[in-house]
C-alpha cells in the first residue's frame, strides 16, 4: 500500500472576522472536519505518524497540529478534539506562553485595517526595512490592504528586533497604539498548562519570538531553540521534544537550522511546506497541509487533493 500519510496544520479555531491571512477555522467547521477525519482516516499523534508513516490498513493516517499558541487552541479547539477522541500537537511560542500583547502580524492588521478613510492619515507611511525604503499610501481601504500585504511580506523575513520598531513607527504614524483584542488573545501560562493536561494534547515549541531561524546569528538561534524548550517544559512539567519552524516556508529553514533543532534535543520538526509524509521523510523536514475554513464537503475534497499530492 502506498503511503497516504499527512500532517495537517491549523492556527486558530474561532469565528472568522477580518482574516487576511486565512488562519482561522470556525468551531463549527472544525468539528465537521474532525468528523470527516474520523470517518476517512486513522488520526494518530504526530510522533507516531513520524515513526511509522506507512498506513497498514485501508485508511490513510493523519496527524493534527496547531501553530503559534492562540488562547482559542486550548479553550475551543482542544475540547472539540477531546470530544472526538482525537490527539493533536500544539507548537507554542514564548510570546504566547507569556500571554501579553499580540503577535506583530495581528498588530499590523489592527493598525492598518481598523482605520477608516476618515481616521487614516493623509500622508504616506515611510519606513526603511532591511536597507530598503518603503512608502505606502493609507488613504483608502484598498491602499491599506495593499500596504498590509507589502509590510507583511517585507517584515516576515526580518529578525524580531527589526520588526518591532517598524510596528512602533506605524503606530506613531497612525496615532494609535496597537490594541489587544479577544480574537488574537494568546494562551498565557495558565492556558498552556490547561491545554497540556487535556488527554491526547502534546505541547511543542515554535521558538520564543516566532523567529525566522536562518536569519539569526548562531547564538540567537540556539537561544530561541533551547530557551523556548526549557520555558515550555518548566511551564507544563513535561519534556518538550517536538518543534515547528516559525513561518515554515522555504525561507524558514536551512541546513544549519535543522542541525540546531536536532542539537537542541528535538526529535522532529515540521515545516509549513505542502507534502505527504512517507517512510523516507526526514523527521526534521516534515511537510504539512494548511487547513482553511472549509465545510464538511469542501474539506473532504481538500483531503482528496492532498492525498494525491496536490494543493487544492
Ligand atoms: Zn487583535
From TrEMBL:
Segments traversing the membrane: none
This protein's UniProt keywords: Signal
Places the protein is found: Secreted
InterPro entries in the record: Glyco_hydro/deAcase_b/a-brl, NODB_dom, Polysacch_Deacetylase
Record-level GO BP terms: carbohydrate metabolic process
The keyword Signal is annotated on this UniProt entry: yes
Domain (NodB homology): residue spans on this chain: 60-312
Keyword Signal among record annotations: yes
GO cellular component, one term: extracellular region
Family annotation (SUPFAM superfamilies): Glycoside hydrolase/deacetylase
One example GO MF annotation: hydrolase activity, acting on carbon-nitrogen (but not peptide) bonds
PANTHER family according to UniProt: POLY-BETA-1,6-N-ACETYL-D-GLUCOSAMINE N-DEACETYLASE, PTHR34216
Protein name: Unannotated protein
Source organism per UniProt: freshwater metagenome
Amino acid at each position: 500500500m502506498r503511503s497516504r500519510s499527512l500532517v495537517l496544520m491549523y492556527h486558530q479555531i474561532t469565528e472568522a472576522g477580518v482574516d487576511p491571512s486565512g488562519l482561522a477555522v470556525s468551531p463549527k467547521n472544525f468539528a465537521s472536519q474532525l468528523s470527516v477525519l474520523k470517518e476517512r482516516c486513522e488520526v494518530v499523534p504526530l510522533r507516531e505518524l513520524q515513526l511509522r508513516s506507512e498506513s497498514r490498513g485501508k485508511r490513510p493516517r493523519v496527524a493534527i497540529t496547531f501553530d503559534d499558541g492562540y488562547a482559542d487552541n486550548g479553550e475551543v479547539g482542544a475540547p472539540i478534539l477531546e470530544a472526538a477522541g482525537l490527539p493533536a500537537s500544539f507548537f507554542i511560542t514564548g510570546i504566547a506562553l507569556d500571554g501579553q500583547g499580540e503577535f506583530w502580524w495581528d498588530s499590523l492588521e489592527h493598525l492598518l485595517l481598523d482605520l477608516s478613510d476618515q481616521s487614516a492619515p493623509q500622508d504616506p507611511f515611510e519606513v526603511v526595512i532591511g536597507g530598503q525604503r518603503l512608502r505606502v499610501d493609507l488613504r483608502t481601504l484598498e491602499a491599506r490592504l495593499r500596504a498590509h500585504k507589502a509590510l507583511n511580506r517585507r517584515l516576515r523575513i526580518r529578525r524580531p528586533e527589526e520588526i518591532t520598531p517598524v510596528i512602533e513607527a506605524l503606530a506613531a504614524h497612525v496615532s494609535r497604539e496597537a490594541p489587544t483584542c479577544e480574537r488574537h488573545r494568546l494562551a498565557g501560562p495558565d492556558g498552556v498548562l490547561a491545554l497540556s493536561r487535556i488527554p491526547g494534547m502534546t505541547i511543542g515549541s515554535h521558538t520564543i519570538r516566532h523567529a525566522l531561524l536562518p536569519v539569526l546569528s548562531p547564538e540567537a538561534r540556539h537561544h530561541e531553540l533551547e530557551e523556548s524548550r526549557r520555558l515550555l517544559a518548566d511551564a507544563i512539567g513535561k519534556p518538550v521534544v517536538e518543534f515547528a519552524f516559525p513561518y515554515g516556508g522555504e525561507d524558514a529553514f536551512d541546513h544549519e537550522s535543522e542541525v540546531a533543532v536536532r542539537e537542541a534535543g528535538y526529535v522532529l520538526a515540521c515545516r509549513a511546506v505542502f507534502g505527504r509524509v512517507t517512510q523516507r521523510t526526514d523527521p526534521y523536514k516534515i511537510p504539512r497541509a494548511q487547513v482553511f475554513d472549509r465545510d464538511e464537503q469542501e474539506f473532504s475534497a481538500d483531503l482528496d487533493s492532498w492525498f494525491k499530492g496536490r494543493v487544492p
